[in-house]
Design brief:
The chain is mainly beta. It has a single domain, classed as Thrombin, subunit H, CATH 2.40.10. It contains five helices and 15 strands. The strands form three sheets. Strands 1, 2, 3, 4, 5, 6, 7 and 8 form an eight-stranded mixed β-sheet that branches.
């Protein structure tokens, strides 16, 4: 597995049941990550969201988000279940708009253009065996002073040819089958595909296009732990 960029660690956040749990770093809860979406009327400005699994939000009435600060400590943001927007089709996804002072909070958000689509799968030749990276919360060592995300590695085992029925909600949703060394606490984590085609610009060359700079990681989907 190639070395990943350190910046992707700053995409992960922790979610706890209470403010006290967040302060103490108690091993209950899940993970999440930052996504930014430009305003439709002015793309120079953007809204940042926290994304996690629906079942992480529903595990407590007051989900508390813990963020790393630039000074080495953390901020905690208390929310309510009703503050979160759930996927309308019942998929195991929940999002929350969040105000961020990037001069205070240490974070890296990803844009919607990096989410995997069928076109991106075809353009980058994404398929079985491609490397997967998941960045999230290792509850055996949360870190009391700051979030210390850990990275897990795996591979795509099956592509999303037909929808899968979710055990928690009963809804049918599109999903990748991934062989990944996961653990409790990683629910809601971002999962990335390492694409050698994007890294080495092969997809552009196949199309006869000039060299272009592309990110080494493509956002895939957040996952439900087994």
């Amino acid at each position: 597995m190639p070395r990943i960029a350190d910046a992707y660690i700053d995409n992960a956040i922790y979610i706890y049941s209470t403010a006290e749990d967040a302060e103490m770093g108690k091993g209950i809860g899940g993970s999440g990550f930052f996504v930014h979406v430009p305003f439709p009327n002015n793309r120079k400005f953007q809204q940042t969201y926290v994304v996690t699994n629906r079942h992480v939000v529903h595990s407590t009435a007051t989900p508390v988000i813990r963020l790393n600060r630039i000074d080495g400590f953390t901020n905690s943001l208390a929310t309510r279940q009703e503050d979160w927007t759930l996927h309308p089709d019942g998929d195991d996804v929940a999002v929350l708009p969040i105000p961020l002072n990037r001069n205070e909070v240490r974070c890296m958000s990803i844009g919607m253009e990096l989410f995997v689509t069928q076109k991106l799968i075809e353009d980058e030749d994404i398929g079985i065996g491609d490397d997967i990276i998941m960045v999230g919360r290792f509850i055996g060592h949360d870190g009391r002073q700051r979030n210390t995300p850990a990275v897990r590695f795996g591979n795509i085992a099956m592509m999303p040819h037909e929808k899968i029925k979710a055990a928690t909600t009963g809804s049918e949703q599109e999903g990748f089958l991934v062989e990944l060394r996961s653990m409790p606490g990683y629910s809601g984590s971002a999962v990335y595909i390492y694409s050698p085609y994007a890294m080495h610009d092969m997809s552009a060359r196949r199309k006869g296009q000039p060299f272009r700079s592309r990110p080494a990681f493509l956002h895939s989907t957040n996952k439900r732990k087994k």
